[in-house]
Specification:
Length: about 230
């Protein structure tokens, strides 16, 4: 049975992807900072009949990352690592001239440094899988210049490059940086609270992620909306 670690899995895209994988029979290790919300999400995911380990904590904490890997080992190994946990750097987003440097540091620590730390911890398990894969959840802000999205976009651009280099260094794995496109999430609401335009639910883009797992295309950067359109 396949095993995945999903960070930022208590709500939004992380939870939607967890439910989709559980419906396919995957065992899961789920991470989030808020214990109560994570426990509720884990209970919902476990209702699909698979094993679910909920490990609350902050991905920037090295000891917490070790706990995530230990939980995966307990389930039998690791086939997929999804780095979905993200920090904006400022809530709501602000122009670069106003961006607190501590906020930028937090975005880089969560979105890049912690993601690499978890990759380093999980590589032995992913290599042993025979079909190991890493999904780094990116953003269009990593490739396009949007006012106020500079700090967050810079961190996601760094994550994209990290994923690209990892793919070159680990040809036996699949490493996909995935831009999920517009979604109605708490993260987006915190980023731009005055934007009341309707956006797709995270569950609507999950089939794009599942296509990657089904077809296992070459490592690289993909857009979930495009993956959906090509089906």
């Amino acid at each position: 049975m396949s095993v995945a670690i999903i960070t930022g899995a208590s709500k939004g895209l992380g939870r939607a992807l967890a439910e989709a994988l559980a419906a396919r029979g995957w065992d899961l290790v789920l991470d989030a900072r808020t214990e109560g919300v994570l426990a509720e999400a884990a209970a919902a995911v476990a209702a699909y009949g698979t094993r679910v380990e909920a490990v609350p904590g902050d991905v920037t904490d090295a000891a917490h990352r070790t706990d995530l890997v230990a939980a995966a080992t307990k389930l039998g190994g690791l086939d997929l690592l999804v780095s979905n946990a993200s920090a904006l750097g400022a809530e709501p987003l602000v122009r670069l001239e106003e961006l607190a440097l501590d906020g930028l540091r937090r975005a880089l620590e969560v979105n890049v440094v912690a993601a690499l730390g978890l990759v380093q911890e999980t590589l032995p398990l992913l290599r042993a899988s025979g079909a190991g894969a890493v999904i780094a959840v990116s953003s269009d802000a990593a490739a396009e210049a949007y006012e106020t999205w500079g700090g967050y976009g810079a961190s996601k651009a760094a994550l994209d490059q990290l994923a690209a280099v990892l793919a070159a260094e680990e040809p036996g794995l699949r490493v996909w940086a995935v831009d999920p496109g517009d979604m109605g999430t708490d993260l987006y609401a915190a980023a731009v609270p005055d934007d009341g335009e309707p956006r797709p639910e995270p569950s609507a883009v999950v089939p794009g992620f599942l296509r990657l797992l089904d077809e296992r295309p070459a490592s690289g950067r993909y857009g979930a909306p495009a993956l959906l359109e090509e089906r």
